[in-house]
Each structure stands twice: as structure tokens, then as C-alpha cells.
Amino acid sequence: MTHRLLPIAILLAVFPLAQASAAAEYLTSPATTARNLPFSEAVRVANMLYLSGQIGADPATGSLVAGGIKAETRQVMENIKAVLERNDSSLEKVVKCTVMIENIAEWGDFNEVYVTYFPGPKPARSAFGAAGLALGAKVEVECWAAQ
Questions:
Q1: For residue 9, what are the contacts with CB-CB under 8 A and spacing of at least 6?
Q2: Predicted TM-score (pTM) of this structure
């Protein structure tokens, strides 16, 4: 029976209880609050930020930018950058991204823009094709970042 407790003991040593039980702080901006969106822009737990997915919507209008996958990807990344900066983080501190792309055939065009936002080490990343995204977006990206 003792051998089964060893992994738990190791986990508790690596992830102290204080951090595991840290309160979540739900973060929004005036723009998100004004539009009464059904989610927080980000959630802070300890020293991590978990961002909601961002689409290529212009923050001023809430409408998707014109120009296709590259323009939308650029706007997605600018939206992510803005949320991170509002919450004392940056693209340099992103550790994980999840990409949802409407047409996987546009993966190369997405990557062409995406990599310009991470010129140094690249975050871990998962991706999958999606049958449909909010507002008819071509791409949505969510990120996790340290502070």
C-alpha cells in the first residue's frame, strides 16, 4: 500500500498545497464587460494566466477583420497580446497555445503569421480543424501564459 502513496507524496512536494488551492481571479476589460460576453478574457491562478480563445475580431467593432486567414491571424495575435499586457504578462511568457482552424488547408498561411509573434522559443501547441467557429471566424487561438 505504501508504494501507491509515493506518487502522491512526490506531487505534493512538487506542487505545494498553497499553489494548488490558489483562488482563481476572473479578469475582464471594460470592452468585454460592455458587450456582456459570456466569458472572462482570462483567469489568473497563482502565477498563470489562462486566456479565453480569441478570434480575429476588431476590438472596436466586434466584427471580424477582412482579408482572410492571414489578416484574421494577425488580429487574433494582437488581441492575445493586448489581453496579456492588460494582465501583466506578454507573448514572451506564453507557454501553451491551442489553435482551432476552420480550414486545415490554410494551416501554412496561419503559421506564416503566427511565427512572427514568437521569434524566439515557441510555446507548446495543439491544433485541430473545426467545423465552425464563432462569428464565422477562420481561426481561434487560446493561450496559457506565466506572469
A1: none
A2: 0.82
